[in-house]
Amino acid sequence: MIKTDILIIGAGPTGLFTVFEAGLLKLKTHLIDALPQPGGQCSEIYPKKPIYDIPGFPEILAGQLVDNLMEQIKPFNPGFTLGERAETIEKLEDDTFLVTTNKGTQHNAPVIAIAGGLGSFEPRKPPIPNIQDFEDKGVAYIIRDPEVYRDKRVVIAGGGDSALDWTIFLADVASEVTLVHRRNEFRGALDSVEQVGELSKLGKVNLITEAEVKELEGGDHLTAVGIKHKTKGDIRLETDYFIPLFGLSPKLGPMANWGLEIEKNAIKVDNSYDYQTNIPGIYAIGDVNTYKGKLKLILSGFHEAAIMCQSAYQRIHPDKKYVMKYTTVGGVEGFDGTKKEAKKEVVKAII
Ligand SMILES: Cc1cc2nc3c(=O)[nH]c(=O)nc-3n(C[C@H](O)[C@H](O)[C@H](O)COP(=O)(O)OP(=O)(O)OC[C@H]3O[C@@H](n4cnc5c(N)ncnc54)[C@H](O)[C@@H]3O)c2cc1C
């Protein structure tokens, strides 16, 4: 049985930063994530995409942000249960919680911080009968590493930001890029729509609208797609990759069965105070929660983590009064080891 002070479900940016905030308060943390690596959406969906709205970083790649967070929490030595989904939460007689994963690993803590983001997010797939046969053999729903497509022929499908942005990006990487969309109008940013139009005029992107990919051909790997055009009939296009970018359908998964108040596929929390759910001792922070005015952004998760940890401290140590201090001053006391060594750690952690 793994025992800790705050058990964090979800090792996305919010969960990772919770380790830091808890560590400053000398609270131990352990993270569970269904994915095999930490970082949540940043690692799984867009590790190579730049982010522009992290305070203090004019531009940072999502993967780099995760690396930095991992570096920042190193001094607090959190535990990880990766590649396992938190399946059940049980309240024990001593007022602590028992969380069991789908692989049977048990975790015990007086406080649970749910930082489960979108839950288990699944890509929306186009209705092509044999599409599963080509997954990882030419069909991808998420672009993790654009270098995979260097000098290859790529067919992208979709009409939103993701489809437009990757079409623009891959125009300089792939040997041939085709964007297929079932309407003439796109849902993405106007600037991106214009850029794709320009690239099409320059012959750098093959734009096929009012059309849908309906068939996939190949053996061990995809070799061609069959496209149905509204007026021109059937088009067969040889390609190495087919990437339908129709968005992700969020599924709360097991979290929906934990007796928590759910609204619009998210967990309702008290944002007037500490992001606690309807079950005392269980908090929900980051993309997974909802309240009036909620912004699903990384910086919101960071803020919520800081507030939540203060409340968790009071719950774990009802007899102690914690006075908030800045990391350079107060944080020194929050680390293990001697004061001097701890100070070094703090400086490392906040650089
Ligand atoms: C394409 C794209 C671009 C974006 N760009 C930006 C941007 O520029 N700036 C910005 O601020 N935000 C951006 N976002 C949003 C940002 O990624 C999210 O706000 C952020 O990832 C939320 O972090 P989180 O830790 O709360 O959740 P997530 O990153 O979703 O992490 C949640 C983790 O919980 C895990 N989990 C869920 N349920 C369980 C369970 N039962 N057991 C175990 N693990 C579980 C998941 O596997 C996941 O790893 C973007 C999102 C996308 C999709």
UniProtKB/TrEMBL annotation:
UniProt keyword annotation of Cell membrane present: no
Superkingdom field: Bacteria
Known EC number: 1.18.1.2
Enzyme superclass (EC): oxidoreductase
Catalyzed reactions per annotation: 2 reduced [2Fe-2S]-[ferredoxin] + NADP(+) + H(+) = 2 oxidized [2Fe-2S]-[ferredoxin] + NADPH
Stretches assigned to the FAD/NAD(P)-binding domain: 5-297
Cofactor note: Binds 1 FAD per subunit.
Alphabetical UniProt keywords: FAD, Flavoprotein, NADP, Oxidoreductase
Binding site residues for FAD: 14, 33, 41, 46, 86, 121, 287, 328
Cofactor: FAD
GO molecular function: ferredoxin-NADP+ reductase activity; flavin adenine dinucleotide binding; NADP binding
Residue intervals passing through the bilayer: none
Quaternary state and interactors: Homodimer.
Record-stated family: Belongs to the ferredoxin--NADP reductase type 2 family.
Name of this protein: Ferredoxin--NADP reductase
Organism: Aquimarina spongiae
